[in-house]
């Protein structure tokens, strides 16, 4: 099979070898190709693994768990700091590999590697801050509360952020003393294998962190049903998340779910137009619109609507679209033909229901999986792009009159991951911050994610939080110990002194 790989300082990163128990799995009877979505050419083939390898990975996690949890917090922190340093050292190679298999512009890929590294550094530091409690329950006893690693962790991550979604789960799990088997998306496994290789080089013991890919249903079934797996964490679609949660219920695993969104972005009449346009572009068009927190519905108040639409369309029409490894670009390809088809269907449905294309709206000459960045006006809540995540470079604008109307429109979805608002009214800021039914709110900015912020949603957008000091708690169990005290002699009250 002819392949076309990026030129890397460490060519072994592109080999595409899963890692189980510290060893690379070089061959199996079956293999799958990893395709560059910008060119349609294969980067390499990876072994197609399944239930056998998944069980082997979990068993190696079990063997490694005792040793890893016995490491002191300082020892685990030092290994994670070494992993962080290696990721930073290999930043350029990792970014090129990520762009090659995922398609995002190289500048965005470099930003993602930095973002991914930030979670490793953050949780290396949090490893030393896992503190318990002593509660003076009664006179004759004390309650001690310990925080201990939950145990073996199964993790599944998506294709849209092949590095950051991994470190946001794996780093806190390792910091807490857990062992992990990760299944990355089959569309983008190479970045995951490279990160695992660097973790081994940093000193993570064999079997502590395994990475396998291939037969997704077979691997997922093992990770959700194996009695040895205590915790399961998933980032992906709401439909798949519900299915996996149900599978985990058979063994009552701890579950974290970071699922789909339908984020509203609200622009009020008093907003700074330049700030609002820049924030909308950052939220909507990052990764070609393929993010779970990107603005899916852009609600613009009547008084500013036309000026905002004109300014946004002018910026979007100037985007540079193309292969992220062939010069500076602002937009890359969609990940698959199915993803491109969904974008086309959403645009066609919207136009058929009365929307107007201001810019874009069609495919792009850069390649088969490219689509023109698009701005639509006249969107309404009955359109598919209002009811479903488009997951592509389409910005639909909805008009509204009042703040109450905007809040009702924003909350009219079963999703509740993120929301954005642009206003200079601080009273309105507090009303929106408390009234939006989401897990995260961005006000006057379109990029909300960082290692310091708890990431997660409400309603059908998920369970649990990732990142921040709260992220490590997802991988810890509380153990309460009631300690009886010996009888204490009565203390005679001191007599008052004469003055």
UniProtKB/TrEMBL annotation:
Q: In Gene Ontology terms, what is one molecular function of this protein? A: succinate-semialdehyde dehydrogenase (NAD+) activity
Which E.C. number(s) belong to this protein? 1.2.1.16, 1.2.1.20, 1.2.1.79
Tell me where the signal peptide lies: none
Q: Where is the active site?
A: 258
Entry similarity comment: Belongs to the aldehyde dehydrogenase family.
Q: Which residues form the Aldehyde dehydrogenase domain?
A: 28-481
> Which named protein is this?
Succinate-semialdehyde dehydrogenase/glutarate-semialdehyde dehydrogenase
UniProt keyword list: Oxidoreductase
**Which processes are annotated in GO (biological process)?**
gamma-aminobutyric acid catabolic process
Which domain of life does the UniProt lineage start with? Bacteria
Class in the EC hierarchy, top level = oxidoreductase
Tagged with keyword Oxidoreductase = yes
Oxidoreductase recorded as keyword? yes
Source organism (scientific name) = Sphingobium scionense
């Amino acid at each position: 099979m002819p392949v076309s790989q990026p030129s890397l300082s460490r060519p072994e990163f592109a080999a595409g070898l899963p890692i189980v128990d510290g060893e690379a799995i070089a061959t199996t009877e079956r293999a799958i190709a990893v395709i560059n979505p910008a060119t349609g050419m294969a980067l390499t083939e990876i072994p197609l693994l399944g239930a056998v390898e998944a069980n082997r990975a979990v068993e190696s996690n079990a063997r490694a768990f005792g040793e890893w949890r016995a490491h002191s917090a300082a020892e685990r922190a030092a290994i994670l700091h070494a992993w962080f340093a290696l990721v930073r050292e290999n930043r350029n190679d990792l970014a090129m590999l990520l762009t090659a298999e995922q398609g995002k512009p190289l500048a965005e890929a470099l930003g993602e590697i930095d973002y991914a590294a930030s979670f490793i550094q953050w949780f290396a530091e949090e490893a030393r801050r896992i503190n318990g409690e002593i509660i003076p329950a009664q006179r004759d006893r004390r309650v001690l509360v310990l925080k201990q690693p939950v145990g073996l962790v199964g993790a599944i991550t998506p294709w849209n952020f092949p590095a950051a979604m991994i470190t946001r789960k794996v780093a806190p799990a390792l910091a807490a003393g857990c062992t992990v088997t990760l299944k990355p998306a089959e569309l983008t496994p190479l970045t995951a294998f490279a990160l695992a290789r660097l973790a081994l080089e940093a000193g993570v013991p064999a079997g502590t962190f395994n990475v396998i890919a291939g037969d997704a249903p077979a691997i997922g079934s093992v990770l959700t049903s194996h009695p040895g797996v205590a915790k399961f964490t998933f980032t992906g679609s709401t439909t798949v998340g519900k299915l996996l949660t149900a599978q985990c219920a058979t063994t009552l695993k701890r579950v974290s779910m970071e699922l789909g969104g339908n984020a509203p972005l609200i622009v009020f009449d008093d907003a700074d137009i330049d700030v609002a346009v820049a924030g909308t572009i950052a939220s909507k068009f990052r990764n070609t619109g393929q993010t779970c927190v990107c603005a899916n519905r852009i609600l613009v108040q009547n008084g500013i609507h036309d000026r905002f639409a004109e300014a946004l369309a002018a910026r979007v029409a100037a985007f540079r679209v193309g292969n992220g490894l062939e010069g500076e670009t602002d937009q890359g390809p969609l990940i698959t033909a199915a993803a491109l088809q969904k974008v086309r269907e959403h645009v066609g449905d919207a136009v058929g229901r009365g929307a107007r294309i201001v810019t874009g709206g069609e495919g792009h000459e850069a390649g088969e999986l490219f689509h023109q960045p698009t701005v639509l006006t006249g969107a309404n809540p009955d359109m598919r792009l209002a009811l479903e995540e488009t997951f592509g470079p389409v910005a639909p604008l909805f008009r509204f009159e009042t703040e109450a109307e905007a809040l009702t429109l924003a909350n009219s979805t079963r999703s509740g991951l993120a929301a954005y608002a642009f206003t200079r009214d601080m009273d309105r800021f507090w009303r929106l911050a408390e009234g939006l039914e989401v897990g995260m709110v961005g006000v006057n900015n379109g990029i909300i994610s960082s290692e310091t912020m708890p990431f997660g949603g409400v309603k059908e957008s998920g369970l649990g939080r990732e990142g921040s000091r709260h992220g490590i708690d997802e991988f810890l169990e509380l153990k309460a110990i009631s300690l009886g005290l010996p009888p204490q002699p009565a203390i005679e009250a001191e007599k008052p002194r004469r003055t």
